[in-house]
Specification:
The chain is about 45% helix and about 10% strand. It is mainly alpha-helical.
Length: about 400
């Protein structure tokens, strides 16, 4: 049982001992054990008053009640800062490298600056609402939805670990919003050609790999001899986000949403096969040795290894984005503020829109893209399936014509 007492009347070590006043005004102490009987750790908490809703008696009763109900929360467990808990939480996640990098960037750039100094138990629903409103002004709706799912999982974990009594994110709405790609985000064929024309020579092939085969940037940068098999591109590896670091051993990593050893095949048009051959003549593939997840050494000959000194060991998506944005500006593909009109993923959008416009089934396109679920493909590109719209018009016309 929890014990309530005053040190001024029982502890000779305190300066106020011995205190003979019945209502001396000195603090009250609650001594209790954590769940686990005698094996539970002994804790103490101090209070200004003995009675009342925030007094020692109320706390002692709540401690024993929570222990009986199996919902006891150690008050000291929630004193860890959001910053410390988030960093520990992320370190314990078993997630892909790109997901880890995205979460780490969000935690460092958004979560910690706004909530990092608060204790995990001190965060309220109001704090989360203000946080969501703030990041909504800086990030795309789809990104806010995805990152808020991460924040909700973080606080859910804190509740499961009995660091907090209530989850402050529980009643904060997090609607997915409209994930459909805007047609204005998709370059035309002539714009794709302009991008290729102004792209840095060593990266020209990436334009065709993305626009002509739907590869992600990291997959295009990891392109190597062995990927092209007659008229099929087999995608097995993607470039690591840390590939530019000299101490990186796993420069190539498994594909997004895939385990090591898994791959996907994408049809390769004749023009793309010819472009790959032309690139290989101008930029001879370079051997790259790396380690797989098991630590076993692997070797492939990559197409996009740096050709200049001081440019790192291997290019990453960040490196490529710099060249892509530079090509956009040089090609005149900018918005009203003079900023690049497109981003690297826009070329992947071009691949999808072109395939769907030619009536290729969306489930086939989804498989070539490497989406985790066809639902993702439908959510983003479903509105681009032309025959669906025309079929709907025909059905409605027939139905209402018969009714008339």
């Amino acid at each position: 049982m929890a014990t309530v007492f005053q040190r001024c009347k029982s502890d000779p070590k305190v300066a106020t001992y011995p205190c003979t006043k019945p209502r001396c005004g000195h603090s009250w102490t609650v001594r209790y054990r954590e769940p686990g009987g005698r094996g539970g750790g002994q804790r103490e908490a101090s209070f200004d008053k003995k009675t009342g809703p925030n007094g020692a008696d109320a706390f002692a009763s709540k401690v024993e009640h929570d222990k009986d109900q199996g919902v006891f929360i150690d008050p000291s467990a929630g004193k860890i800062t959001v910053r410390a808990y988030a960093e520990d939480w992320l370190a314990r996640r078993i997630i892909g490298e790109s997901t880890y990098s995205n979460y780490k960037g969000f935690i460092d750039n958004h979560l910690i600056p706004r909530l990092g100094r608060k204790t995990i138990a001190g965060v309220t629903k109001r704090d989360i609402e203000h946080f969501k409103a703030a990041i909504s002004k800086e990030l795309a709706a789809s990104t806010v939805y995805d990152r808020m799912k991460m924040v909700k999982h973080l606080f859910w974990s804190a509740k499961e670990e009995k660091r907090i009594q209530e989850d402050p994110t529980r009643d904060v709405k997090n609607a997915p919003g409209n994930r459909a790609v805007d047609e204005d985000e998709i370059p035309t064929l002539s714009e794709v050609r302009l991008l290729h024309q102004h792209m840095s020579p060593q990266y020209k092939l990436t334009v065709w790999l993305q626009a002509g085969a739907g590869l992600r940037v990291s997959e295009a940068l990891g392109f190597h001899i062995g990927c092209l098999r007659d008229d099929v591109i087999r995608v097995r590896w993607q470039i690591s986000a840390k590939a530019n670091r000299a101490d990186c051993k796993t420069r190539l990593v498994p594909l997004k949403h895939r385990e090591e050893g898994e791959y996907r095949d994408v049809p390769a048009a004749r023009f793309l096969c010819a472009e790959i051959a032309n690139h290989a003549e101008l930029w001879k593939p370079i051997p790259l040795t790396f380690q797989n997840a098991a630590g076993k050494a692997r070797m492939v000959e990559v197409y996009f290894a740096p050709r200049e000194r001081g440019k790192g060991i291997m290019p990453t998506a960040n490196t490529y984005t710099y060249h892509f944005r530079k090509a956009c500006v040089a090609a005149g593909l900018v918005d009203a503020e003079g900023k690049p009109k497109y981003h690297p993923h826009s070329l992947r959008h071009f691949f999808v829109s072109t395939a769907l416009a030619a009536s290729i089934p969306i489930h086939e396109v989804s498989r070539w893209l490497g989406h985790k679920s066809i639902k993702t493909t439908v959510d983003i590109y479903g509105h681009m399936v032309p025959e669906s719209w025309e079929r709907c018009r025909g059905i409605m016309q027939s139905a209402f014509a018969e009714a008339a």
